[in-house]
């Protein structure tokens, strides 16, 4: 049976983490998970330990890329076949994990849980950056990615090892674009996402604009100069 690890990066998610993990365990007990506490300043780590959750507790805040890469390195070292990026804020729904895995097994390196495969993007200021990043990816790769900013992404073993071993591989649209240019097969599955019910996102209007500009410039310019190292696999290990 193929082994899937669900990686849950968490930073200051004391209001959400217990509910998210318990719901995940209830809906998908067949899959392993790990919470990567990214140097939270609140009770995120303490609550995980009190509940007996599988936890990697980073002593300092590394940011989403560092926390995510920590989880994928753990997946690679433990010999998992697949890894899923799953948000700690409650927006991602466990019901879509099995369909994403099935789509992955049909022949994909990355599967994105997308809000806009069969549904149209709303024409709002909030979606403007999503439109621009989709356009930049299509312009540079010829591939249409409907929801490039979705944080619900599944990776096969080859991608797990690539992310685990390369320091400049963040879970962001520019890396997805870069991997497409290098032959990765990316597919999308229509999903629904919930609104955050507690806590607050670090992405306010100013940070969102900065993020979209950074991603656009990276996709259009910087990725052309990025060098790709050969993929080296960790020795096969099983839990």
UniProtKB/TrEMBL annotation:
Residues 6-161 form the Glycosyltransferase 2-like domain. It comes from the Bacteria. It holds the Pfam family Glycos_transf_2. This is Glycosyltransferase family 2 protein.
